[in-house]
Every structure is written in C-alpha cells, then in structure tokens.
Amino acid sequence: MSNEGGSKICVPILGESAEQMLVQMDKAKLLGADLVEIRLDYLQSFEPRRNLKLLIGRCPLPTVFTYRPKWEGGKYEGDEDERLDALRLAMEQGADYVDVEFKVASKFINSISQRKPEKCKVIVSSHNFHNTPSSDEIGDLATRMQAVGADIVKIVTTALDISDVLRIFQLTMNSQVPVIGLAMNERGLTSRLLCPKFGGYLTYASLEKGQSSAPWQPKIDDLLNIFNFRLLGPNTKVAGLIGNPVGHSKATTMFNPIFKTVEFDGVYVPFLVDDVPNFLKSFNSPNFVGWSCTIPHKEEALRSCDEVDPVAKSIGAVNTIIRKPDGKFIGYNTDYFGAISAIENKLRVLQNLPGGTGSPLSGKLFVVMGAGGTGKALSYGAKAKGARVVVANRTYSRAKEIADSVGGEALALAELENYHPEEGAILANTTCVGMQPNDNESPIPKHALKRYSLVFDAVYTPKMTRLLRDAEESGVTIVTGVDMFIIQAYEQYERFTNLPAPKELFWEVMSGY
Ligand code: NAP
Known about the structure:
By secondary structure, the protein is α/β, with parallel strands linked by helices. Helices cover about 35% and strands about 20% of the residues. The strands form 3 sheets. An 8-stranded parallel sheet has the order 7-6-5-4-3-2-1-8. It starts with 7 loop residues before the first strand and ends with a helix. The structure holds NADP nicotinamide-adenine-dinucleotide phosphate (NAP). NADP nicotinamide-adenine-dinucleotide phosphate binds near residues 372, 394, 413, 433 and 443. Pfam families: DHquinase_I (PF01487), Shikimate_DH (PF01488), Shikimate_dh_N (PF08501). This is Shikimate dehydrogenase (NADP(+)). GO terms for molecular function: 3-dehydroquinate dehydratase activity; shikimate 3-dehydrogenase (NADP+) activity.
C-alpha cells in the first residue's frame, strides 16, 4: 500500500520506571520521532491506572502501547487477562495505538468491539525469530491478521540472507491495509532503512546505541541525519555497499550527505552479502542503481557481472557494479584510479609539477605490500603509469602471480625489512594490517621506512595508521587511504547518479575524517 502520509519513525521507550519513560519520550520528540512505543513490559513496577494516565497525559507524541509477553519475545511473564486489561485501559485513556500479538488478537478485538475509541488503532503483530517465510506464507499471514480486524498489520521476521528483505518489501508495497514490515538482524537492516521507499507504515529507531528493542534497530539520529529518512519515497534510487563485513565503511556517511546537498533522489545503504551471484539475481530491479563492492567479494563480483570493464578485467577485481537499464550488470574497478591519482597528486605538489604533464610515477620503483584485490589494482595502475613494480606479500605465491602479470619482481613480505630500494621509491600498503581494531600493527618495521620518498596506506580506518605515523616520524611524505577512498568514489558517484561528481563537496564532507 502506498504510504501517503510518509513512513513514520517510532522510538521504543524502554524505561524501567514511568519517570524514566517521561524523560525518554521528551528526548524522542527532541530528536524528531513521529511517535513512541511505550513498552509496558520493561517497567519494573506497573500500576496501570496511575502510570497510564501519567504516560498518556504527559507524552508529547502519539503513543503506541505494547505489553509484550515472553512468549512473543517480550519481558512480561504475568497473567494474560491482566495484560490485556492494561492494553484496554490504555486504549480507553487515550492511546493512539495498541499493539496486540496475533495469537490473542481475535479475543482482544472482540472484547473491545463496542468500546474502541475512533482514534485508537489496533496493530496486530507477529514476530518470527527463526527466519523469513516465503512470500505466499507472509501474504497468507497478513490476510489472516487483517481478517481478525487489524487496523495495521505488523510482521517482523528474521533475515538469514540479504534477499529476505525483498519479501518484506513485497509485503509493504502490495498490502491493502497499512503494514509494518521489518526483518531483524544485520542482514535485515535495509528493511528498516528503506521503509519509506517501499511503503512501510513505520520503522522503529532507538534513542541511542544500546537502547534498541530489536537487533540492528538503527539510531534515530542515523536514520534522519545519515540515511535522509524524510527524503526517501517510492522513486528514490538505491545504491549501496556489498561486502562482509560492511559495518566499518564510511561510504554511507560520504554518499548520503552528498546526495542530499545536490538534491539527487537517492540513498546509499549497507548490504551484508554472503553470495554475490544470488544477491545480483535477487536485487535486479530498477529500484537499485548499483553497488560499491568490498572484502571479500571483489573477485567474485568480477565473475558474476554480465560485462566487465577492460581495466577491471586486467586487474582481476571489481569494486563497482552498475545495473544497466536492460538489467545487465557491468563491473568496474575505481580503486586503481583512486590510489594512483592520490599518490600522483601528492608527488606533483612535492615536485611542483604542473597537471597534464606525464605521470610523476613514470620510471619510479613502486613497492606494493599485499596481493589481494587492492594489491592487484595498485600493481596494475603503477605499471600502467610507467613505474617498475615490486610486489611483497605474506603468501609469496600470490605476490609472484601479480608480479609476473605486470613484469615485476616478487618478495615475501618479511623480506622488506632488509630491502634497500633505490632513492625516490614509493611504498604502498594494500594489506589489511593496521586496520581497526588492530590499529597498532604495521606490515613493516619503522626503521625500514626511511628509505622511501613516499608511503601510502590503503587502510582508511583509522586514517592515520601506525604505518603512516611511523613514516611521518621518519620524515617521509605520506598519502592516506582516505584520499584514495574519496577519489575512487568520484566514478562510482557518476555511475550511480549519471551526474558529474561534485569533487569539492566530497572533500568537504570527508574533511572530518
Ligand atoms: P584482500 O583481497 O582480502 O587482501 C588482503 C591482503 O592482506 C592479502 O595480501 C593478505 O595476504 C594480506 N594480509 C591479511 N592479513 C595479513 C597479515 N596479518 N599479515 C600480512 N598480510 C596480511 O583485501 P583488499 O580488498 O585488497 O583490501 C586490502 C585493504 O585495503 C583493506 O584494509 C581495505 O580496507 C583497504 N582498501 C581501501 C580502499 C580505500 O579506498 N582506501 C579501497 C579498497 C581497499 P595473504 O595473501 O598472505 O593472505
């Protein structure tokens, strides 16, 4: 069902006392919630008449009352009649919504048939903590929930695979009554973030981290200020990051503010993907424009695309997948351009070279640490710019394979400690060493760094890695992974939006990192 008023944000209020709940309600209003869900089962002591009057009378927002029993994932373990009495009382005292579990909904709705105030809506809810059933089963469940008299149907499932969210979207888009459809867990996160695009009645958002009522419920601040929740609608184009893990990426905090500033109707969200071919098959619709692709999927992405750009093919890794209007997927590699341009830009400034002249990498010795997707991209790029490439990797055979493909030399990573490069050599780290949470690690001892004229690190969380700190302290020029990250994103942006990349805006948005 199209959600004409726009999807709402509901903040669960989980205080242990009515007084704590009042404070949380005010905070929810301040942060921009549309309504609050008062979870009576979280109260340590509950005096229905007194507490409900206070909570309803003092709440600055419309209220949903939920008194969730243990058998449906809540905390209440007492008498069922008392539980339903409390919900009836909330309704009589002015609640805007009451949430009752499907198993008792028929009994509850029959009991209020003559007494239900016009403004109060009954949400009939069902929670599946095991999986996400088939579309037919979900559709059948929704029909049965509607038949018992639900004003709003709420179906919450557990996502075991990213494609499970598509069945939730199908439900919220096609229902004849308002529907709350959500999938729990990290693989279901997109169902929460994209609720306005697919017509969900509301999504739940926590006041802050640690105050959520379900796994992977986003914070209200993130929903509003990173994912631009209020700007999303049926026409919004979805881009995102596919990988595993995806939680560490800064791409959402880069693309979304830029989309908002340039008024592009798009959103960029994380997709925790296990199986790339299955993902592409499932998400092949005009709603999705394309994805950045990260660890461990860059090589699988190359095999899964219908077409691959020649540069990506030579590198052997794809970090950008674009869905063409005919439904075919084309893979690109923008890592190569990002890293090499960031290094060239710094060398040009250092050597006072005008732009447009030949590459400052030409003829230089370029030592690449790592032989994964990024190692291949940098080796290919350095070679393409006329550098002589040395690849050093923990697993020597992988270094050898890349070195052979670019006509370079291979080393074991440990050999770099005593390696003596010629003057002016560049050192680039493309291993994961130094990445959070292992911030204090470096792939090479500090004393070996002073022999290089420039050290680059692809790792960008943190921005100042141990390697870069060691290099700076040794008087060596550095280029960060954040510089690479920004430049590699230009082309992704252009392919997602069909607009020229607002380069200055990228640097402005990322200036805090
Ligand atoms: P990948 O394909 O998984 O390759 C990982 C590389 O790291 C391999 O060479 C591996 O060596 C090496 N490695 C892993 N653990 C190691 C250890 N403990 N000691 C020594 N070597 C180790 O990963 P990738 O996609 O190339 O990404 C690599 C890094 O680049 C990541 O930190 C990623 O975040 C970063 N990156 C940054 C950007 C950016 O825009 N700044 C873009 C892309 C990637 P073996 O072959 O021996 O396993």
